[in-house]
Amino acid sequence: MALEPGTPDAPPAARRAVDKFRLTVRKDGSLRWLSHHDLLRTFERMLRRAELPVHHSNGFHPHPRLIFALSLPLGVLGRAEVVEVELDEVIEPDVVHARLAMQCPPGLHVLQTRRIPVSAGAKVIGLCYAIQVPPERHAALRDRIAETLATPEVWVERTRPANRRLDIRPFLRDLRLDGESGWLEMDLHLKPEGTARPDEVLTTLGIGDLPDAGAVMERARLDLQEDTLNPIPGGPA
Question: pTM (2 decimals)?
Fold first, then answer.
């Protein structure tokens, strides 16, 4: 009699994950300079040290089924990044959360651990970047925000992967400046053809010099297709 996929005695090639979790994590401090590849390896070490039964892919070179919803640009702080991990055993969410939290290096924090269907997968449809703007630049910035949102086209020059001119206006969902905190939030659409880059938006608004002056860019939020009514929390404090 053929074995059912996912049973303990099934051949490795036939096994499927039996549990899956969506983690919301914060990446800050010096860890914001960690590349996506190195962050992936850091998570793999955390999972091993946490002794979680991580599901591995099939084939000649199995690797842990660990998926980041969207890679984070180097140097950008991530307030609520989304990571999904598949397991070969059913484990309670609070156990997974506690074990991983104990293995986090400085600058990495597990904020939330939520069980999701094994067949589910995060599809990012929007994202929000944020940066703090000095008070003396608020008045001019408000004018530029109004002008940008009112115009039908916003053209930028991209040099990578190849030189081209691109209209980023279709990717701009909203621009907001909080006068009290000084946070500028840039809500962007993520479409099959891409999205706007935060540095392009800053240049358009006349504040492209802020990162070089020491302001830290943050990715405040990722919006998932299934979570559009309840976006993942984690915007600027």
Answer: 0.86
